[in-house]
């Protein structure tokens, strides 16, 4: 680990890494707020690490030896939200066979992290306000008043003031939760932290999967820094782990940021060689030329040089135009053209298949499909 990176103090915080000004300024403010036993509201885009920030708040506070309890507001149904937060007595509702402690009771002496606080039902917000204001609550179906020694840390990627204006969030509850509002910087604002995190995720995943420690090419590093990362750290981690899994020779040459893009949407069709049956004037069925595959030869015959202009790959066995009058079928000619294009691209890229696919204007999956089809012919040469 680099000496100027933030060294986590708890195993669950291993991904709180960074050295950018935006990241370090946020961590400094978070450390200062952690010492004050008041509610904190974390605001940030999806994937920016709000749960990690909440955990750091807890472990840097005087409550660090107490429980750190998490409740996802997005997973709460209005009918069960109150019981999840405050617990219930036996017989409080159908199915309540015994007393069950709620999240506040379980978090006593520690921190309760309310993730996606903007999704909390209004009926729960009323009772939550009382806990924040007075530190008291009752179980569902109970009459005993309980004390809550709990620090509340809430998080959201929603516009809570906007929800207040829409009547979907209580203004007085927002006032109480917003004692301190911390804004998590998005990954696109953290500069070279992207490279630091990418190397961390790549090394960790390679160790877990038993793969060689990968390296990033100059092109991949440039892509890491120029991509916007709308899913932030979560998207970066998933992308890097996919790339490590697919890397050939331990070198990551490109980023797979579009896992839902089907490799079969565009590009040349791949057909098995076949001959069609035609009926001559004499009436007997005789073999004839098959229908031409739906392939534009220019798609596979053209390569892009370093300057970005298209150049034709010189080959020793390109189809002879005169062959059309000498019995060569169109499928045979296309097959030769594909084989020559594959040979040329692999030669220019020193058999780096991902680079060869890019050179031919194909996705990696399209390239692999063509290569498998022509493997025997290519490997004989």
TrEMBL record:
Keywords: ATP-binding, Nucleotide-binding, Transcription, Transcription regulation. GO terms for biological process: regulation of DNA-templated transcription. Coiled coil: none annotated. It comes from the Bacteria. It comes from Nitratidesulfovibrio vulgaris (strain ATCC 29579 / DSM 644 / CCUG 34227 / NCIMB 8303 / VKM B-1760 / Hildenborough). GO terms for molecular function: ATP binding; sequence-specific DNA binding. Residues 16-245 form the Sigma-54 factor interaction domain. The keyword Transcription regulation applies. The gene is pspF. This is Psp operon transcriptional activator. The keyword Transcription regulation applies. SUPFAM superfamilies: P-loop containing nucleoside triphosphate hydrolases.
């Amino acid at each position: 680990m680099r000496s100027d990176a933030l060294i986590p103090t708890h195993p669950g915080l291993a991904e709180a890494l960074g050295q950018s000004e935006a990241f370090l300024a946020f961590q400094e403010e978070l450390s200062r707020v952690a010492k004050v036993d008041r509610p904190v509201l974390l605001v940030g885009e999806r994937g920016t690490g709000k749960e990690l920030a909440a955990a750091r708040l807890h472990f840097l506070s005087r409550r660090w030896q107490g429980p750190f309890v998490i409740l996802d507001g997005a997973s709460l149904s209005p009918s069960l939200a109150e019981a999840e937060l405050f617990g219930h007595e036996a017989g409080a509702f159908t199915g309540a066979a015994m007393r069950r402690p709620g999240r506040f009771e379980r978090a006593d002496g520690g921190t309760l992290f309310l993730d996606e606080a903007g999704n909390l039902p209004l009926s729960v917000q009323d009772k939550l306000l009382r806990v924040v204001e007075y530190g008291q609550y009752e179980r569902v179906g109970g009459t005993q008043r309980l004390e809550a020694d709990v620090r509340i840390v809430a998080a959201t990627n929603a516009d809570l003031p906007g929800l207040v204006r829409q009547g979907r969030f209580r203004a007085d509850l927002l006032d109480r939760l917003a004692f301190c509002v911390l804004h998590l910087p998005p990954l696109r604002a953290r500069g070279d932290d992207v490279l630091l995190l990418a190397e961390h995720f790549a090394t960790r995943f390679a160790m877990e999967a038993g793969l060689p420690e990968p390296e990033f090419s100059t092109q991949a590093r440039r892509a890491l820094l120029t991509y916007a990362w709308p899913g932030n750290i979560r998207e970066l981690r998933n992308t890097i782990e996919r790339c490590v899994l697919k890397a050939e020779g331990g070198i990551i040459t490109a980023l797979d940021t579009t896992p839902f893009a089907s490799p079969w949407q565009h590009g040349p069709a791949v057909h098995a060689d076949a001959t069609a049956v035609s009926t001559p004037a004499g009436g007997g069925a005789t073999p004839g030329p098959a229908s031409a595959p739906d392939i534009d030869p220019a798609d596979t015959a053209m390569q892009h040089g370093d300057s970005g202009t298209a150049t034709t790959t010189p080959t020793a066995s390109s189809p002879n135009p005169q062959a059309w009058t000498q019995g060569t079928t169109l499928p045979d000619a296309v097959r030769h053209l594909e084989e020559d294009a594959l040979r040329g691209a692999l030669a220019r890229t020193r058999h780096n298949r991902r680079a060869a696919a890019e050179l031919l204007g194909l996705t990696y999956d399209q390239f692999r499909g063509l290569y498998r089809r022509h493997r025997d012919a290519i490997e004989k040469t």
